[in-house]
User: What shape does this take?
Amino acid sequence: MEISSALVIIGSGPAGLSAARGYRDAGGGGRVLVVTADEHAPYERPPLSKEFLRGETSAGDVAIEDDAFFRDAQIELMLSTTVDAIDLAGRSVSTRDGDAILWTSLVLAMGNEAVRLDVPGGDHERVRVLRSLSDAQTLVRAAEDARSVIVIGSGFIGCEAAASLASRGLVVTVVSPEESPQITRLGAFAARRIRGWLEDLGVRVLGGTSVKEIREGRPVHLDDGTILEADLVVAAVGAKPRTALAADAGLVVEEDRVRVDAHMKTSAPGVYAAGDVAYADNGALGHPLVVEHWGDALAMGEVAGSMAAGVDATWDVVPGFWSDIGDKALQYASWGEGFEFVRVVEHDATAFTAWYESGGRCVGVLTHDADDDYERGITLIRAAATDQR
Assistant: This one.
């Protein structure tokens, strides 16, 4: 079947939905079609490792919009639909179901997919990952029948999942090559705080060690000879962008992402990319960044949708995100390009601000219970970057 649409968006995550919304808000009046392999309508991903995993919310609670929104905005969803190829010359995409979808403008918002653990047994079906709503539903069902869990990885998804599973009463062990969670990214002070928060919840943190093998999906063998037994194993070892479609179509790909300018324009006319799949110039910083944050996916998607509607827009915000580890909230903003020095200000027994500096300039800020510092930090980071240009 042949279908025609003014705007076709591949992917229904934050960037994809924001592109559709941005197109309509900018006055785009053509047909909008969102094509996604996901079986669920657009949903919030951040709660999956928090409230949803703790059993406090349901699938309906994480939906971003209800059916009325899509009907009123005239945004059509093609769920459970895989795109097999993009034809740039013919301005069409072909689906696995045999449909050919013609487009005037195309937005690539395929996002990331969870990385499987690259060790023997790491791809066993009993080793769970947490990226999609379907992943989260599977993990919740598995947790209901488990008493213990090993979480592999100490990034924010791993830490959030560990805290949430501990709150369900499971005995939780975190295994990570990092001595303490996020020490490379955030520095020693923040890493100690995060580790302390996890340990206060009863989570055992085994840092400085890696997984060597997982046998039959459960016994976890570490590189120091330790063997861990648990009812459930969760691999939270990162994500990779879904760029195969773009690369096969001949679009420019750098840093394993689709290369775009600050207007989300790819190397092909009428084609945009946004969110985790994009390697985008930041208008304030003046060069491209790898960013994998929910808020930035929303911002990039809005830019792409506006551009598709013929309204000029630029991605120029300072990247940032938040994380809830149990009942402790962190806010972080940074260009993500490292730092030379960390200056920590402790406001009381729990609240703190970590200021990240390079070359005498503020390049990042991390706060806990210090919202004013977070907002001020974003202003300082942006100003410092602008001054350097």
About this structure: The CA atoms of residues 108 and 273 lie 4 Å apart. The radius of gyration is 21 Å.
